[in-house]
Amino acid sequence: MKKTQTKNNPKLTLEQLGKNLVQQVKSMKNPEITLPIRALSNIEYNKKTGTLQLGSKEGKRSFFNLGHAKKFLQTVEVASILKKELLDTGKHEHLRGVFYITKRTIPGTNINIVDEQVESDKVIEDLEVITGLSREQLHVSANKMGSMVGNVSLIDSGDTIDCSKLGRGGYSIPSITDELQFKKINAKFVLYMEKAAIFERLNEDKFWQKNGCILITSQGQTTRGIRRLLQRLAEEGNLPIYVLCDGDVYGAYIYSVVKYGSIALAHASERLTIPSVKYIGITMDDIVKYDLKKQLIKLDEKDLARIKQVSQYEWFKDNKEWQKQFKMMKEFNGKVEIQALATKGVSFISEIYLPQKIKNKDFID
């Protein structure tokens, strides 16, 4: 079955998906769903756009196939829940909630439609690929794991929020950021960081106020909602985006997800990536420049294996500056966390490190 999307109408799109399956049954055919394969083997790096994209390889999910039957049933069940319980009512539900609605035992058996949340989560991602709709358009949310502060005001569910007047905690970024409306943006750039502790330091030091910027943080790997928010600020606010992470291969990958997209969400790259984003630090060069060798943490086998893997990704392997960083990581046999800068002074990062980096445009592209 080919992708069936009714432009800009999620309800009609899912309804058409169901009608196509019913038509196959009426025609005495084995009902099946065709969808692109979501695996590294089908991920392509588009050098022209600078983003990861799904390739052309497709797979089929049919009902009368023992290997497909349960996944087929899960797909149809979740699609039905999204249509009836969410889109038809105009309500939103968390990923966890969708899981609990889906989790039930098939009558006359001891088999549950889903046993773990990861199953329903993956089906929702499959439905994104099948329909061309985003999870957010399907009214499904996830955990809120980020904060924002700065001279930006927005409208959230009818409430006007001034992100410059929310104290130390800042604005709690919702899972679905497409529905936010920007009322005013008065900033020179956006600084995104993986660690909430660094956000709190910069916020307390009023870094955003002194440097005319917006600060955004997540807790580790950036969420879809934050990636979409960053993209909107880059496009609608015409703002440069700078990424601040730990000086290790995991920080490099977090940066690459914001810039190029992720393997798991290659199908959503168009609405999540920011090819113009710059990496501000920490770099291996900073370890030398700011004498941070005493703060190095020795690499283990997992770190070394990850460096080898990430350095060979197509979007990294021809980048001389990043290859230099990976080489230095191995030479130092160490990694360094952002908090290592605090050994130079609690506010060193806000008063010296970041201002100098920005002034000198000391970034990695």
| Annotation field: number of helices | 13
Profile the largest sheet. 6 strands, mixed
Radius of gyration from CA coordinates: 23 Å
Chain-averaged pLDDT? 91
Q: Helix-strand pattern, N to C?
A: HEEEEHEHHEEEEEEEHHEHEHEHEHHHEH
> Structural class of the helix and strand makeup?
alpha/beta
List unreliable stretches of 5+ residues.
Answer: 1-6
Order the strands across the largest sheet as they lie in space.
Answer: 10-7-13-12-14-15
Percent range of helical residues: 25-40%
CATH architectural arrangement of the largest domain:
3-Layer(aba) Sandwich
CATH class categorisation of the largest domain: Alpha Beta
Number of strands: 17
How many separate domains make up the residues? Answer: 2
Distance between the termini: 41 Å
Shape: globular
Q: What share of residues are in beta strands?
A: 15-25%
CATH topology of the largest domain: Dna Topoisomerase Vi A Subunit, Chain: A, domain 2
